[in-house]
Design brief:
This protein is α+β, with helices and mostly antiparallel strands. About 25% of the residues lie in helices and about 35% in strands. It is built from four helices and 13 strands. Strands 3, 5, 6, 7, 8, 9, 10, 11 and 12 form a nine-stranded antiparallel β-sheet that branches.
């Protein structure tokens, strides 16, 4: 019996050591990374963001940056967008390549699959929906969302896109009145919906529990 207790304790200790805190991708950490810390050879700043529905009211708290290709601790990420609130990183969006998926899921687990969403954006042909397959990771204030969108856009153009978004829900709420540059409106709506659900229901016991095998990212 004592041997089983020792093995159980060792297993629990290993699980605690294996858990990683969901904060972002490598050095791009929610709420702590600043614009000054970015590699100027990789990132360029976007134009000013404005309050939604206006063209004259600037969101002075918001800054955003973009990069076609950046390297984060040895992992190449592409089509990257970073968003800052009062110079604190609150959202990251990038392509979800096979290599990034391998490293991310090894560190944070497989996430939780959500019900598939079908959007009829192509009004010319109703049989051409846009299908969204979504996976979530959540820990405390930080929410990560992988979306694979396959089908047809509002202009009836074919689309097959895989994106990863990581955001601080608290700062995302503060920035919700602003029209962010280069964002996917559907993903923003989903993030805002999840944030509202979390606010109404409160954190669950499972919130923040992410099982993984450590890997540098």
């Amino acid at each position: 019996m004592k041997h089983w207790l020792i093995l159980l304790l060792l297993f629990q200790v290993n699980q605690l050591v294996a858990q990683a805190t969901l904060v972002g991708l490598g050095t791009l950490r929610m709420t702590s990374t600043t614009p000054d810390s970015l590699n100027k050879n990789e990132f360029t700043e976007d134009d000013q963001s404005y309050v939604k529905g206006t063209i004259a009211l600037p969101c002075t708290h918001i800054r955003s940056f973009k990069s076609k290709r950046a390297v984060v601790e040895g992992v190449v990420i592409t089509n990257v967008n970073l968003y800052f609130y009062d110079n604190s990183l609150f959202k990251l969006s990038c392509d979800y390549s096979d290599n990034l998926e391998r490293v991310f899921t090894k560190k944070y687990g497989l996430g939780t699959s959500q019900p598939t969403r079908r959007l009829s954006l192509c009004t010319k042909e109703k049989e051409k929906p846009l299908v969204l397959k979504i996976t979530l990771w959540q820990q405390d204030d930080i929410l990560a969302l992988f979306n694979q969108s396959t089908g047809y856009t509002a202009t009836c153009e074919p689309e097959n896109k895989r994106r990863l978004d990581i955001a601080s829900q608290r700062l995302q709420a503060l920035a919700s009145d602003c029209e962010l540059r280069n964002t996917d409106q559907f993903i923003d709506e989903i993030l805002n919906e999840l944030r509202r659900q979390e606010t109404q229901s409160g954190p669950t016991q499972e919130s923040g529990k992410i099982k993984n095998t450590p890997e540098k990212l």
